[in-house]
Structures are given as structure tokens and as C-alpha cells.
Amino acid sequence: MNASAMPLANNTPLCYSVNSPPFNYHPNIASAYFSSIFGTLGLISNLIAFIVLLKSFQQTRSRSRSFFLIFLGGLVVTDFMGLLVTSSIVISFHVTHFNWRHLDPNCHFCNFMGMSMVFYGLCPLLLGAAMAVERFFGINLPFARTTSMPKRRTVYMVLMVWLIAGGIALLPLTGIGSYHMQIPGSWCFFNISSKGNDLAFSLVFSLVGLMCITVSFLLNTVSVVTLIRVCCGQDRTQRRRDYEIEMMVQLILIMVIASICWCPLLIYILMSVVTADPVSADNVLFYIRMATCNQIFDPWIYIMCKVSQLRSLLHKLCYPDIPS
Q: CA nearest 1: which of 168, 139, 195, 144?
């Protein structure tokens, strides 16, 4: 990242060794308003989505849909908590203009935000891949999954995803990578570098994220092809797959939005560390903001795709000869 704006002492904490406040940047009231509106909109959207999913879970009689709704619930909770934690810190910075080195001389707060950025960033991608795997087996290999599988097993899978993301987020505290202050001084993230342990962590973060998106794309493509064959085949009047189609529509939209929001950052990190090119702080900040948009767009997928009109439209498209 960019060099510090001021000379560093020998006892400079690790998180300020690359970028050290104060920076030549003066946050204005417009930044505070933008961050506040951005965070509030995301929190409200995820709260509405959670209520919609909770009502859907109580009303559904489909076991496969119950499993899918548990995954969606985990995704909504993750997005909500991610926005709550990170937005609170960013908004506080824009409102109070606090100096991190005075507030957090030992880097504890910076490390916490860095871990939060990594954890809440990887969780949606890992959950998207987990949902793609669940739908792949549910649609393509229905007999490979026992019909008596308890719902708590799905909950355990969500917890496992959180555990994996948390384990990756903790790696910099063990020496594999490091969290650093980022320009303009409102947030912390891991150091994107082609040297030493920072290279290893940069590769882990970018490759895990890209692998999740790739797995989601491949498995979702196979599942969609299977559903198209079912809807358009000779047995379309015998196999009514309304719920499966509705779930796949949601899952495809989740995958597309995650790819648009996250791929620029993940590819930029990967290319920067592989080619050893200088990392632009402005580019990283822009790509991070793009990635954060994923937490705002995701909940509207559940809200808009749950309405009864969508199911009615899907039914008419796939089963035109069968009355709703």
C-alpha cells in the first residue's frame, strides 16, 4: 500500500507500519451522510429480508426449501452483522474524525476491524457455494440425500461456514499476513503485498473467494440445465418443481450479484501479488466499496423473489397447461 504520510518511529505498531494517520485527507459531511445512508439502507433491507424468510420458513412444507431457507437466514444474519460492525466504525470516523493511533495505540481495534472485513467478506461467498452444493444434490441427486436428514444438520453446515471464515480471518494474528490501517483512515484490512506471509494470506483470501464463485457457477449451471429439462420434458405435468425453480432463481441472482461485487477486488488482489505491481490505495478502496454493495443488494433478492406473483409467473411459464 502507499507509504505513510508521516515519519515512523522504530516502535511503530505493526498495523501502522505501512500507512500511518493522520493522512492528507479531510472527511466531509457528504462522506458521513453517504456512509450513514448506505449503512442504514443495508441494515433495514436485511432486517426486512429476515422477517420475510422467517415467515416463509414457518409456512413452508417442503423439506428441501426449509434447508435452503436456513442457508438464506444465515446469509441475512451475516450481511446484517457485517454492515452493523463495519458501518458503525466507518460512520464514527466520518463524524468524529478520530485518530486511530491515539484511539488504538496497540492495534487491537484495527485487528478487530480487519478480521471483521475478512470474515464478513468471505462468509457470503462460502455460503453461496454451500447453497449451490445443496441445490445440486437436491435437484440432480435427490436420492443421495436422506429424506430424514434433520434441519439441525443444515444449521451445523452454516456454523461450519462461519468457522472456516473465522479461521481464515484469524490467520494474520498467527503471523500469516497482517492487518493494516487503510487510507483514508476509516478502516483496516489485510496488507496486500507480494512479500512474505502477506503474499500467502493475499493468495488465500483471493483464491478462496474465486473458488467459491467458480463452484457456485459450475454447480448452478448444471442445476439450471436439469430444471430446464424437467420443465420442458415429457414429464413436466408429473413433476411440478415450482419451489425448486424459485430457489434457483434466487440462487442465480445471489451468484450474479456476488460475482459482480466481489470479482474486481479478488482479481485485483490476485494480479497485484502475482505480478508484484504497486497496489493503489484508491483502487482498493473503490473495489471494497463495490464488494460491500453485495450486502445491500442480497436482501432484496429474497424480498422481491418471494412474492406470490413470481411463483405464479414461473408456474405459467413452466406449466402452461396446468391451472394455478
A: 195
Cβ contact 97:32 at 8 Å: no
Cα 239 off chain centre by: 34
> Can you give the pLDDT at residue 145?
54
My answer on whether omega of the bond before 184 falls inside 30° of 0, hence cis, is yes
Position 291 confidence tier, pLDDT thresholds 50, 70, 90: very high
Give start and end residues of each alpha helix (H) in the chain: 29-59, 63-96, 100-103, 108-140, 151-170, 196-232, 242-275, 281-292, 294-304, 308-318
By the 8 A CB rule, do 276 and 288 touch? Answer: no
- pTM, entire model: 0.84
Dist CA 192 CA 179 (whole Å): 9
Tens digit of each residue's pLDDT (9 = 90 or more) over 123-142: 999 999 999 998 888 787 76
104 CA to centre of own chain: 27
What's the grid cell of residue 157?
453446515
pLDDT tens column, 37-74: 888 888 898 888 888 888 877 777 666 677 888 888 89
Q: Hey, which residues does 180 pair with through a beta bridge?
A: 189
Q: Which pLDDT value is given to residue 303?
A: 74
Cell of residue 151, nine digits: 434441519
